[in-house]
Every structure is written in C-alpha cells, then in structure tokens.
Specification:
The complex is a heterodimer. By secondary structure, chain A is α+β, with helices and mostly antiparallel strands. Chain A has helices at residues 2-7, 9-27, 37-66, 71-76, 81-113; strands at 117-126, 134-137, 150-153, 156-164, 169-173, 180-185, 191-196, 202-208, 218-221, 233-241, 248-255, 264-269. In chain A, 34% of the residues lie in helices and 29% in strands. Chain B is mainly α. Chain B has helices spanning 2-19, 34-45, 49-65, 72-87, 96-117, 126-157.
Chain lengths: 273, 163
C-alpha cells in the first residue's frame, strides 16, 4: 500500500487538490453568512504587514511631494534655501492635513446626517488580481463589521463587505463584475440593476427602452436589495444607447466615488443595530 | 522541510507585494500575477507533492484577498502545474528562451481562462482584452527572466537537474 502511494504520490496529491478546489468552488455558489476559517486566517495574517506598508507608502508620498520635486527650486534659490525649505515643508504638511481634514469632515458630516451608525475605515490593501475589484480595510469583526454591510463615502456607495476577519475586512467594490445593486434614476424613477463592468464604470441594466434616461442623470439606490438604504448616490449616467427593437436600453454610469484612489471609507450599520 | 518553508515564505511575500495599494505613491501601476510565475517555477524545479501543495496554497491565499470566486485560482494553478509536467516530457524547458515562452503562454492562457469562467470576457471589448492580456503576459515574461536566469545558474552550479 505504501509503495503504491509512493509510486503515485504526485497523482494522488494532485487529484485530491483538484477535487478539493472544485468542491470549494461549487459550494461557494450557495450563499453563506460566515467567512470561511481559512480566508479569515489569511486576512488576519496579511493585515499587520499591509497596515505597516500602507503607512510607509503615505510617508513616502509625503516625502516625494515635500522634497524630491522641489530640488530644482532649492538649487535656483540658494540664498533663501533654508527658510523656503522650512516654510514649504510646513505648507505641504498643512495641505496634506487639510485634505485629510476635508475628507474626514465630509465623512463626519455624512455621519451626523445619517441616522445610522457609521464606522470609518482606511484602505490598507487592494485586490491582488488586477481583473477584479476588491479592497481590504482596517476594520473587522472586532469593530462589529458583518458580511454584506454597505460601504460608502460622502460621494456615494463604494461596495459591500464580502469577508470579515478579526481586524480586517474585504470590500467588494461597485465596479466588480460580481457586484449588483438595485437602483433607480432619481429624476424619472426608472428602475434597474447596477452591475460592475470591471473597469471604472458600471452599467444600469434592465432599464426598459420606454423609460426616459438622459446623460447626466443621477442614479441612486432604491433600497430594495436589502443591503443599501434608499437614496444613496450610485453614480451619474455617462452614456445611453437605445434601439427601438430592444427591450432594454444600454445605460452606462460613472460611479460617484472614484474607486481607483480610495483612502478612507465608512461602513454603514443598519438602523436597528 | 527547510526548502519547503523557504518557498512558502517566497510565495507569501509575492502575494503581499500584489496586495499593496501602490496607487498611494504610483498612480498608474499595472497589476501582475507574480505568484503565477512562482507556480511555474515550482512546477519546473519542485515537482514533488509539496510543489503541488504550494501551488494550491498560493492560489488559495490570493483568493482570500481577492474578489475572485472561491476555488478558481487554486484550480488554475494546479492545471498550469499539470500542463507543465506533461509538457516536460516533450520539451525540457532548460533554456531561458523556452522558459520565457512558457511563462508567456501559460500566463496568457491562465488569465484568459479566468476571464472566461468569471464572465469578465463580456465586460470588455475583445480588442481591449487582447491588448491587456498581451501586455500583462509580456511584462510577466520580462520580470520572470531574471528569476529563472539566477536559478538556472544556481541549479547548474549545484548539479541540480530539472526533474
């Protein structure tokens, strides 16, 4: 028996792993409220280094904007070099603080406007596969985060919580192909489903050809999908294509939030929580 | 055992590199599947059960951090591993050129399979997909060549033979 195993060990191990992968994939079709243990372990393991690296990247960005880009200015103004350096450094720090302040102030205004509880979080990682759109945030089960909770900014919805670990969570972004949100055109109340197009755009699908949708129309959540409350900004219509023979028209949206450069987000807790 | 953990750490590090939000400093960064090169490397230099297991584990770890449907990435890694082992019976993949072509072909095929199985292929125009796939595969091929060059040299100097 052991000689048989030794002779065919590669085949046995490979077959087992393939069958296991297929079973994991097929079982993922059924919805599950809990994040599987293995994924929780991986998220927990990667959270500390990602947080540290993100902090370093922010410092590097500050360093680049404060010093390296200004070398030419330093060379040209030798006599005022020390005082200008000091003043520019302070100015850059204040600008960065001001930008962050504006972002956090907007989040705070959003918090005070909303009757639901909001928890703010930082983006510490992004989807390692470029084709998919997900992000990692620095809040998890320890902060009361649960699966399918909505994630928003003051500019609109970002996505929903996909997986939760102890102190980090994975967010499925609005532009991901697997994302879908029930929405309506604010002006005409035409309903549809916003699905990600895996680029920076989304599509408002299943809008009847008879509905009036124009460029620049604002699309908001309808509140019917059970995840996002009603009235949150999804995006603006940037393209409409209608064919009289088609049942549905093609409506393209640009998300309200710039999902490629996210730094801070808010997680929305339902009102009964 | 030491080698297994060394390779495991290498794989973990590559996954970490892929998950970092580089846009904080570099606004335009192309994301490449660096760990896939590692899987190809394992298939060539470590075809034992531990190699299979590492390929599976790398796919699972990537998947845990990604929005990709569960089970797909480990499966793609295992299929790539299997295809390399089968192709090794015909082509030895000892030269850098053959290894580079292997990386290009497998990376292209793996990405295409991922796009087809997740229906991403319908989200983009075909020419955009083709250009994207070609660009990613070529870049990955270029990045993989130094790794293979170093290991080819070490393998020959230590008398290790590709199995």
């Amino acid at each position: 028996m052991s000689s048989f195993f030794r002779k065919h060990q590669n085949f046995i191990v490979a077959s087992f792993l393939v069958v296991f992968s297929l079973s994991v994939h097929s079982s993922s079709v059924r919805s599950n409220d809990n994040t599987p243990s293995f994924r929780r372990i991986i998220l927990n393991a990667y959270s500390p280094p990602l947080r540290a690296i993100t902090s370093i990247l922010k410092e590097v960005r500050h360093l680049l904007s404060s010093y390296i880009l200004l070398l030419g200015v330093q060379e040209k103004n030798i006599q005022l070099q020390k005082s200008i350096d000091r003043l520019i450094e302070q100015n850059m720090r204040m600008k960065e603080v001001l930008l962050e302040n504006n972002r956090l102030r907007n989040l705070l205004l959003l918090k005070s406007r909303s009757s639901s509880k909001l928890v703010s979080a930082e983006i510490i990682g992004r989807d390692p596969m470029g084709w998919f759109k997900a992000a990692l945030i620095n809040k998890g089960a320890g902060d009361g985060i649960k699966r399918n909770q909505p994630v928003i900014t003051h500019q609109g919805i970002v996505g929903r919580i996909l997986d939760v670990a102890a102190d980090t969570s994975k967010v499925l972004l609005l532009t991901d192909i697997n994302s879908s949100v029930d929405a309506l055109v604010q002006r005409t109340r035409a309903r549809g489903i916003v699905e990600g197009r895996a680029s920076d755009l989304c599509e408002l699908k299943y809008v009847s050809s008879s509905e009036d949708v124009r460029l620049g129309d604002l699309v908001v959540t309808s509140g019917l999908c059970g995840i996002f409350p009603k009235g949150l900004t999804v995006g603006k219509v940037t393209r409409v294509m209608k064919d009289s023979f088609d049942l549905f028209q093609y409506v393209e949206l640009t998300p309200g939030t710039s999902l490629n450069k996210l730094e801070e987000v808010c997680i929305l807790f339902p009102e009964n929580n | 055992m030491k080698q297994f953990f060394f390779f495991l750490l290498g794989g973990l590090f590559l996954v970490l590199i892929q998950a970092i939000p580089w846009y904080y400093v570099f606004p335009q960064v192309i994301q490449l599947n660096l760990s896939f090169v590692f899987v190809i490397f394992l298939a060539l230099y470590r075809p034992s059960p531990s190699g299979w297991f590492l390929a599976f584990l790398l796919g699972s770890m990537l998947e845990a951090l990604s929005g990709v449907p569960p089970g797909l990435l480990p499966l793609i890694n295992l299929i790539a591993f299997f295809l390399i082992r089968v192709a090794r019976r015909i082509v030895l993949f000892e030269s850098l050129l053959s290894q580079a072509i292997l990386v290009f072909a497998l990376s292209f095929s793996a990405d295409l399979s991922l796009l087809i199985t997740t229906k991403l292929v319908s989200a983009y125009p075909y020419m955009v997909i083709l250009k994207n796939l070609l660009a990613r595969s070529l870049l990955l091929m270029a990045l993989s060549m130094p790794l293979f060059a170093i290991f080819n040299k070490r393998a020959y100097s230590q008398g290790l033979v590709l199995k």
